[in-house]
Design brief:
Structural class: mainly beta
Low-confidence stretches: none
Order of helices and strands: EEEEEEEEEEE
Helix content: under 10%
Largest sheet: 7 strands, mixed
Distance between the termini: 41 Å
Number of strands: 11
Radius of gyration: 13 Å
Mean pLDDT: 96
Shape: globular
Number of helices: 0
Length: 113
């Protein structure tokens, strides 16, 4: 059974950076379609970025130019490098694994001075 665990969240000042990690168990990680989503208080969960098994990436408009999604199949891990963070990036960030449709528990990112 595949399990997903996110880490790397925290409190950062505007303009700062964080790198989120999502580790997934199982032997088929290299075949998975992976995504990062976020949910701010009072708002719906929204897409941040995705990466295919071939490494093709896609970003939502708020993430373009500031965030980078990547994967390391040798470590069964997907990353989200977030730079130039803004207060509006504050949210719980979730990792999603397809096609098994698994979500992690989320990691809190707070951008505040």
């Amino acid at each position: 059974q595949v399990q997903v665990v996110e880490s790397g969240g925290g409190l950062v000042q505007p303009g700062g950076s964080l790198r989120l990690s999502c580790a997934a168990s199982g032997s088929r990680f290299s075949t998975y379609f992976l995504g990062w989503y976020r949910q701010a208080p009072g708002k719906q969960r929204e897409l941040v970025a995705t990466i295919t098994r071939l490494g093709i990436t896609n970003y939502a408009d708020p993430a373009k130019g500031r965030f980078t999604i990547s994967r390391d199949n040798t470590k069964n891990t997907v990353y989200l490098q977030m730079n130039s963070l803004k207060p509006e990036d504050t949210a719980v960030y979730y990792c999603n694994v397809q096609p098994v449709d698994l979500w992690g528990q989320g990691t809190q990112v707070t951008v505040s001075s």
